[in-house]
């Protein structure tokens, strides 16, 4: 079976790297992306480097040339298909779908030159992050245009599958759930010796949909005796309007707000030195931040989104608070400080989930999907 996995956007290397390294232990395949990693990083599979203008987050000048990068890479994929005749092409993060409808023309062309190839798309989220209603309407139209070119879709949770099928009118049999694996960082630093205060951390890029403002507002609602026991840190580059709106309130209540890009080394130290990790998201299908948080075995306080409840199956109800409610988050923080949460139950669930969300299991499920759709192709031909 000839398989090509493609991430033409180069959007989330940590996900692609983990999945591909796990898949390499199951099947032979090729992986194409615009990453600038050294070749020795890729072991067990053939890496095809796509054209890359920039993958540096701060280089805004070169970022405006990203469409050119995408166009060149789709042309390159065209020739790969023309020459190699893959049985399966598995796409991740389509670069144009969020902005323009160019993908449908390339997908149509791919089908014309390689009609027996089965195309799979991993739909990581229902809609792109921070999408306005107008952007969602346009994205919906583009998804309707491209869905006919895919034999199968992969999502990361059952709740995501239900929402995806309903929203875009896709048959459930064409969608499979493959769990997003847990990231397991290496070279984790030791925790500092200080025990008090109780440290709460929210990390990652900070935007409205992630509920950063809910954290700030919740601290303002806490009684004084609770605020004296805790320290709150918000770490990550923040949307300018959001930061300007909440920075004075945050300062008033002693919240440490690190408004800049955080390196992995600094982030891991912040997590290790924390007691509680906060994820007050308003909406998301699956969160890499949540799965990274699981690997550190910290207490988690998260909004009760269906995807979060499903991912954290077995966690005490006190770990969840009502979506979009600063009052509910303040109550969850208070319960932890007052030691009213069954942390042993949470620890047992955490250990079970780390095993459940292994990259090995994700890779094995993905391979089964490849074989299944190729078998269906052979049946149709016969």
Verbal overview:
- This protein has 382 residues and is of the alpha/beta class.
- It is built from 15 helices and 13 strands.
- It has helices at residues 13-23, 60-63, 66-84, 103-113, 133-146, 158-168, 212-221, 224-227, 240-252, 264-272, 288-295, 306-311, 326-337, 343-356, 359-381; strands at residues 3-6, 30-33, 46-49, 88-92, 118-122, 152-155, 175-177, 198-203, 230-235, 256-258, 276-279, 299-303, 320-321.
- The strands form 2 sheets. Strands 3-2-1-4-5-6-7 form a 7-stranded parallel beta sheet, sandwiched between helices.
- The radius of gyration is 22 Å and the shape is globular.
- The model has no long low-confidence stretch (mean pLDDT 90).
Can I get a quick summary?
With 382 residues, the chain is of the alpha/beta class. Helices cover 44% and strands 14% of the residues. Helix 1 crosses helix 15 and helix 3 (66-84) packs parallel to helix 4 (103-113).
């Amino acid at each position: 079976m000839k398989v090509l996995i493609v991430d033409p956007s180069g959007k989330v290397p940590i996900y692609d790297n983990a999945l591909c390294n796990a898949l390499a232990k199951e099947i032979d395949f090729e992986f194409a992306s615009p990453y600038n990693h050294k070749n020795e990083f890729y072991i067990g599979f053939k890496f095809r480097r796509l054209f890359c203008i920039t993958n540096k987050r701060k280089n805004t000048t070169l970022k405006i040339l990203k469409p050119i990068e995408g166009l060149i890479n789709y042309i390159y994929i065209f020739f790969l298909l023309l020459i190699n005749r893959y049985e399966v092409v598995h796409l991740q993060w389509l670069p144009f779908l969020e902005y323009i409808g160019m993908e449908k023309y390339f997908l149509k062309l791919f089908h014309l030159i390689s009609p027996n190839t089965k195309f799979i798309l991993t739909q990581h989220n229902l809609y792109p992050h921070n999408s306005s209603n107008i952007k969602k309407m346009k994205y919906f139209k583009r998804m309707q245009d491209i869905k006919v070119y895919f034999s199968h879709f992969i999502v990361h949770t059952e709740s995501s599958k239900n929402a995806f099928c309903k929203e875009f009118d896709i048959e459930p049999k064409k969608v499979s759930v493959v769990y997003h694996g847990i990231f397991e960082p290496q070279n984790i630093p030791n925790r500092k010796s200080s025990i008090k205060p109780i440290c709460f951390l929210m990390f990652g890029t900070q935007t409205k949909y992630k509920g950063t403002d809910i954290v700030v507002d919740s601290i303002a609602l806490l009684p004084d005796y609770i605020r004296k026991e805790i320290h709150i840190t918000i770490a990550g580059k923040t949307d300018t309007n959001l930061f300007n709106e909440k920075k004075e309130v945050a300062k008033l209540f002693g919240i440490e707000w690190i408004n800049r890009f955080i390196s992995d080394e600094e982030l891991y130290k912040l997590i290790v030195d924390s007691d509680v990790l906060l994820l007050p998201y308003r909406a998301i299908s699956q969160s890499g931040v949540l799965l990274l948080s699981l690997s550190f075995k910290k207490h988690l306080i998260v909004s009760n989104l269906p995807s979060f409840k499903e991912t954290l199956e077995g966690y005490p109800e006190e770990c969840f608070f009502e979506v979009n409610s600063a009052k509910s988050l303040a109550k969850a923080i208070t319960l932890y400080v007052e030691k009213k949460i069954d942390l042993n139950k949470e620890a047992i669930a955490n250990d079970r989930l780390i095993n459940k969300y292994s990259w090995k299991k994700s890779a094995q499920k993905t391979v089964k999907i490849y074989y299944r759709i190729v078998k269906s192709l052979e049946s149709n031909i016969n």
